[in-house]
Amino acid sequence: MKILVPTEIEASRLRPKGLSPEIIGMGPVEAALGAYQALLNQNKGPVILAGIGGAYPDSQLNTGDIALASVEFFGDLGICYDIGFQPFSEKLPVKKECSLRHPLLEKALAILEDNGFSPECGPFVTVCCATRDISRAELLAIKHQNALIENMEGFSVALVAQKLGFPLIEIRAVSNLLTEPDSPWAIDTALEKLGEALLCLNQKL
C-alpha cells in the first residue's frame, strides 16, 4: 500500500508510527506532478492520499474527525465574481469531477468502522486557496453536493490515479472548521487521528 501526503508536516507525524509516506507536494499543481512521479513505476495498488482538511459548514464534522472522499471536485475552476461563483460553459471540455467510488472505498470504510472509528464519506472539494470566508465556504459546499471537506490536492491526485489505473482512497482528518476561520488549526490532533486510521488500514486493507 502506497501512502501519499502533501508535505513533510504529515510525513513527520506518520513515520514514527511505522508508516512510510511519500511526499508529493502541496496544492493542485505540485500534487499532480508529485503523484504522477510516485505512481508512474508503481506496479499495483491500493494508493492512499492522506492529509488534513477543513470541514465545511453543515458537514457535522469536528476537529479530529475522519472522512473519506466519494468524489473530488475542482472547486476553483470557473468564473469567480465578488458575489459568487459560476462554472464555465458546458461547451468547454473541462473536467472538474473525479469519482472515488470503488470496492476498496467500501472495504476501507468497513475496516475503520469495525475498529472503532466513525468515518464520514462524501464529496470533497479541491481549491487553490484555503477558504477564510464563511459565505464562500457555504457556497462551495452547496454547489458540490453538500461537500464535507476542503483540501488542496485531492482532485489532482484522483485524476492522476484514474489515468494510471490505480484505485485511490483519499482520507482526511479535520484540522479546522470553515465556520471558524480565525480559530487555530488543530493540526496535532488531526494528524494523530489520521495516523491511527492509517495504521488500521495498513494492517487490514
UniProtKB/TrEMBL annotation:
GO biological process: L-methionine salvage from S-adenosylmethionine; nucleoside metabolic process
Pfam families the UniProt entry points to: PNP_UDP_1
Nucleoside phosphorylase domain span: 25-190
SUPFAM superfamilies for the chain: Purine and uridine phosphorylases (SSF53167)
GO MF annotation list: adenosylhomocysteine nucleosidase activity; methylthioadenosine nucleosidase activity
GO cellular component: cytosol
InterPro entries named among the record's database cross-references: Nucleoside_phosphorylase_d, Nucleoside_phosphorylase_sf
Protein name per the record: Futalosine nucleosidase
Source species: Thermodesulfatator indicus (strain DSM 15286 / JCM 11887 / CIR29812)
